[in-house]
Write a structure and sequence with these properties.
The chain has two domains: about 130 residues, Alpha-Beta Plaits; about 40 residues, no CATH class. About 55% of the residues lie in helices and about 15% in strands. With about 180 residues, the protein is of the alpha+beta class. It has a five-stranded antiparallel beta sheet with strand order 2-3-1-4-5. The chain contains seven helices and five strands; from the N terminus they run αβαβαβαββααα.
């Protein structure tokens, strides 16, 4: 049995890990074989996701110890065996779990915390796997902003330039 000091140290380390990310998934990897669990760990490592199996009481105390973030909506899901997945991209763990589950039913998603948004239940997995990352959203916004300009430029460069000039001339004559 761990001593009080060892538990406090584990909580402190967990607080640091939780504070260092805006994306964490709580999963249930119970009933997975040792081989499957090892495969999951390897897949996580390969995908840049940190996986950690923790005691529920230590996890809850660590979450309570993080300042400025309220994880209380996740507390009801901290039951049974819990493995935490820490990631940089909000959809990365969901994609990994979805892909991994082609071979079985585990790990199951208990809950997720992504930039202070809370998702509860395994039924959220498909939606989470389709979330766009920050870079993808910025790319979409830039594309949308450039689109009208491209249309105007192509219209001016193409045969549409004469049409626009003619339209402007007709409007001027009508106004006069």
């Amino acid at each position: 049995m761990a001593t009080r000091a060892e538990k406090d140290q584990a909580i402190t380390e967990l607080i640091g890990e939780i504070e260092s990310t805006n994306v964490l998934y709580l999963t249930d990897a119970s009933s997975m074989s040792a081989e499957s669990t090892s495969d999951l760990r390897r897949a996580c490592h390969k995908g840049g996701i940190r996986m950690k199996v923790v005691k529920n009481t230590l996890l809850r105390k660590a979450m309570e110890g993080v300042e400025g973030k309220d994880y209380s909506e996740l507390y009801p899901t901290i039951v049974g065996q819990t493995a935490i997945l820490f990631a940089e991209k909000g959809n990365a763990p969901a994609k990994l779990i979805k892909d991994f589950r082609k071979k079985g039913t585990r790990p199951a998603l208990k809950s997720a915390w992504i930039d202070q948004a809370v998702f509860i239940g395994d039924d959220q997995l498909v939606m989470l796997s389709e979330l766009k990352g920050r870079e993808e959203l910025i790319g979409d916004i830039i594309g949308l902003l450039q689109s009208p300009m491209k249309n105007v430029i192509s219209a001016l460069q193409g045969g549409g330039g004469h049409k626009i000039a003619g339209l402007v001339k007709a409007l001027q004559e009508r106004a006069a």
